[in-house]
Specification:
Layout lengths: L5 E2 L4 E2 L3 E3 L21 E7 L12 E4 L2 E4 L7 H14 L4 E6 L4 H12 L6 E5 L16 H14 L4 E4 L7 H10 L4 E4 L3 E4 L1 E2 L4 E2 L5 E5 L4 H14 L4 E4 L5 H9 L4 E4 L2 H4 L3 H16 L17
Parallel strand pairs: 3-4, 3-16, 4-7, 7-8, 8-9, 9-10, 10-15, 15-16
Antiparallel strand pairs: 1-2, 5-6, 6-14, 11-14, 12-13
Helix pairs in contact: 2-3, 3-4, 4-5, 6-8
The structure holds flavin mononucleotide.
């Protein structure tokens, strides 16, 4: 059997497949369907310091090969997570990564400071696609300066590794990714959802109460792959790729383009066993190609003209 393990430097993973934030609840919801310990890791739903109800419905709209969501980062807050969920996750032999949110830079630090006092967390993933009061409601992921400021604060606060999750809604991903790297981020993950909207022709109303939402699923995979390739080509820190991964072959595309690990998001909503199937398909591919170590294919994209 092929060795699927991956060493991110700050974290060793059994295999490169993580469940993506917001599509896998707090992890335990999937325990009836899959063996959570077969995953490389779980990135839990984004947490602000306090509980939040999210946006009003309707907040999901399907589109061809995609899903537009405007959930609005509904969550239970750090205290309930630490008391009710984390003790049960902490016993699992898989990496638990907490997706950290904030309306201000200070709130990111508060969330990390609180969680730093808990056991059972392998790393933080900074969700810098949250509307930020200090950025006039824009998300920090859109600006290199704002990204740098949040990552630096998070790194100064945290006793754990920090992964910065980047947005695709920018003109130059490399300058944002480099800002995260320069501020001390241990890795970057990309992409978050692509800003989108949908219209109901009969009512002439937006299909989401929030008007705008984030597009995910197979429709965004080519965009994600391009951004991951651009970031991985220019960074020294590991890149974690996501966006529309539905199969083992999709995941392999990201690894070949330079990602050291991948996250599976919307696929979990279609099939709760998707992440396990994806791991199996990657393993079968290695077997078929007689590849002993999956890590050997990372960044092997051949762009030379034939
Ligand atoms: C319903 C839903 C909720 C999400 N919630 C979060 C979240 O809390 N934090 C976050 O960083 N990303 C969140 N995301 C973005 C996903 O983690 C992922 O970046 C995106 O969906 C692209 O991957 P995919 O095409 O595999 O779903 C959410 C996505 C969906 C569909």
């Amino acid at each position: 059997m092929a060795d699927l393990s991956i060493d991110l430097g700050f974290l060793k993973l059994r295999n490169p497949v993580l469940a993506a934030s917001g599509t896998f609840g707090y992890g335990l919801e999937f325990a009836p369907f899959i063996d959570l310990e077969r995953l490389g890791g779980i990135v839990v739903k984004g947490l602000y310091f306090y509980a939040r109800p999210g946006n009003p419905p309707p907040r999901l709209a399907e589109s061809p090969s995609g899903l537009i969501n405007s959930i609005g980062l509904q969550g239970i807050g750090v205290k309930a997570f630490s008391q009710e969920i984390l003790p049960r996750l902490a016993g699992l032999r898989t990496a638990v990564i907490v997706n950290v949110c904030g309306s201000t830079n200070e709130e990111y630090a508060q969330v990390i400071d609180y969680l730093d006092r808990q056991e059972g967390i392998a790393a933080y993933e900074l969700n810098i696609s949250c509307p930020n009061v200090e950025q006039d409601g824009l998300c920090p992921a859109l600006s290199p300066e704002a990204t740098h400021a949040i990552v630096r604060l998070a790194k100064r606060t945290s006793r754990r590794p920090v992964i910065t999750k980047l947005s695709p809604n920018v003109t130059d991903i490399v300058c944002i990714a480099k800002a995260a790297e320069e501020a001390g981020s241990d890795a970057v993950s990309l992409i978050n959802t692509v800003l989108a909207m949908a219209v109901d022709v009969e009512t002439r109303r937006p299909r989401l109460a929030n008007v705008f939402g984030g597009l995910s699923g197979p429709a965004i995979k080519p965009i994600a792959l391009r951004l991951v390739y651009q970031a991985a080509s220019r960074l020294k820190i590991p890149v974690i790729g996501l966006g529309g991964i539905m199969s083992g072959r999709d995941a392999l595309e990201f690894l070949i383009a330079g990602a050291m690990a991948v996250e599976v998001g919307t696929a979990n909503l279609v099939d709760p066993e998707a992440s396990i199937r994806i791991i199996q398909e990657m393993e079968d591919w290695c077997e078929e190609k007689k590849i002993k170590k999956l890590k050997d294919i990372i960044g092997t994209l051949n762009v030379a003209s034939p």
